[in-house]
DNA sequence: AGTGTGCCGCTTTTT
DNA sequence: GCGGCACACT
């Protein structure tokens, strides 16, 4: 360890690092060296005689945990760092629960259900109850249950809590409480916990078993919490319990970056800290080392529109830098094209590498147009987040075998693979098994094991017995073989791998590769030495527990590869990039249409915008499109209200539309760019008259659109007409294909299809009127 | 019993 | 515009 490590810190940072005993809150503005302080503080603790085994450091994402581990290792040199307990809330608690779950009546090898598994269990229950799953949407019920657990409310309390019951009654969903109760019981029976249980049951455990609480209080004498502003009540209470004995709690947070209230996080926790611990020391880190003055000033001004913040003044010594570039395009595709072209240009002009660029968006669905345009220009990229690797069908199938091997109670997994690949145990048989299990009060697996007693048909019985023999043979390997050996055996016996190998379609090939990747990851897992504070055996159980908590952003692979990063703003928190494109700055997209109905929600969107801006070190582009496809339908959006909150002084509104850049010879960049529209491109930016909202879809008339040949610009007064009115012979307008004539009508009355010929829009097309809508021009 | 087709709902954000 | 799911067809 370097002797002078404290010299690298500024005064405030040093103050935070040197405060070892007692509660400490670090209010760390964006880019103020938070991670540095956290890692240095760990080093400093060790320097001062604290045993690494006694330090617990909790983060929200695996990425953050990994980064912290690596940086501590760099300071300390590997061996001592290994004894630290660093991880996400969920992974750390999962590990502790694996040691203690039996006290709560769960198997220690309990299965962890991800949200898809959980919703699937709920769907089953909702159907069993003969409730309409249109009304009791599994997603919605899941969210209610999740919110309840995150505020430490069990099924019993839920069903008698007046406020909660009122809410459910008002929403006309009186059965949610009952469903919660049944869901909890079903998970228990399956030997499974969902994500929220990892927190909720941890709390129950610590609260209900003083000797367990005492044990971990004694073990974790020093606790550090990153992103404290994102903790929910469950996490808050657990931290309080664990820290109560020593009160060596160090929390780091920034109220301006609180963006997870939808997951139950409450900003109150950070505001409350000083009240909870009256001897708490508070250190504010206000110097930003990351961004230019332009970027930081814009960020500060934007966030100033929020009320009730912890007072702080974020400043920087960095140069002023370039202005923030604001870009408007006609469509989402053109937005993608613009960003790809700008990346190519910036790479040359300023010698950036691919990995210096990030494209940040509000919703995962937006990634598509950027993927396409980057691929066209052969710019390597990687999408972080989105559908996780472990959520893919083929992976879930394979993992279901591993889960059932570990935990035969897990009926969710059992149902998934009992007839996959096909082995003659069909729907009727499964239903029969479910009924038998209920009647005899045993698990489905036990019914299968004793199938002979229950009078199945000979063929079916044979199929069942073969299945039971196979799974039992996997099960028998548990004590003697590591995860990889078992996985290989599963692959062989089930024919899963062979089946996918023989599938020569593109998707089949991709699936085969995914399975290979899964097997590789298991191999890697078994061969990598243990790195955490406790001896972690390389068993199937530990492996399964880990992967459910991983998202594909964590999928070990070449972390440092040179690629453009695409991710949601949420996923970008804690990261920084020299050049950032924040895209899709449109009303109802960002801020999200779901979040414009209350001040609280809107302020969270604004904090999200703040996070997006402050990811940028040197250059920042903000883009938005006039119209984009949503649900396969073209919609027009106004520019985001946030754009109007930025100080003019630091904004370059002419970048994409201005003449000088366009004329630059040889670049070929702007000539075919879609940004066309000339100087008046931003005319609607300045104000949004409230009156406009009432009139149907006002469209700014674009002048001289470059993309007009391929994209029809709808009439200003475009209003779709009722499909029932459409008749052959009418002249109509389509938002994308332009004007056309209906040749013929077909389809059922509630799903009418028009055969329309569009002279300028690509000839004859069948238009499903329920989706793509038409306006009648002439009858 | 297994495979194929059509329909519905969906998009905030994540462990 | 897609994927998951229900139903219908063989």
UniProtKB/TrEMBL annotation:
Substrates-to-products reaction catalysed: ATP + H2O = ADP + phosphate + H(+); Couples ATP hydrolysis with the unwinding of duplex DNA by translocating in the 3'-5' direction
E.C. no = 5.6.2.4
**Could you tell me which residues belong to the region Disordered?**
663-724
**Boundaries of every UvrD-like helicase ATP-binding domain copy:** 7-292
UvrD-like helicase C-terminal domain mapped to chain residues: 293-574
Q: Which residues bind ATP?
A: 28-35
For this chain's UniProt record, which GO biological process terms are given? recombinational repair
Asked if the Swiss-Prot or TrEMBL record annotates the protein with the keyword Hydrolase, the reply is yes
What PROSITE patterns does the entry give?
A: UVRD_HELICASE_ATP_BIND (PS51198), UVRD_HELICASE_CTER (PS51217)
Q: What would you give as a GO molecular function for this chain, any one?
A: hydrolase activity
What name does the UniProt record give this protein?
A: DNA 3'-5' helicase
Record the organism.
Chitinophaga oryziterrae
